[in-house]
Amino acid sequence: GIQALKRQIAASEIKVVVIFKLERVLRSTDEWGPFRAFLSQNGCRLVSTTEDLSEETPSGRLKNNLLVSVAEYERLNTAEKVRAKLAELAKRGIWNCGLVPYGYRYDATAKALHPHPVEADIVRRIYDDAARLVSLTELANTLNEEGQRTRDRVFQRRDGTRENVGGKRFKSDALRNLIRNPIYAGRVRFHGQEYPGQHEAIVTA
Question: Which residues of 3-20 are buried (b: 16+ CB within 10 A; e: fewer)?
Answer without folding.
Answer: eeebeebeeeeeeeeeee
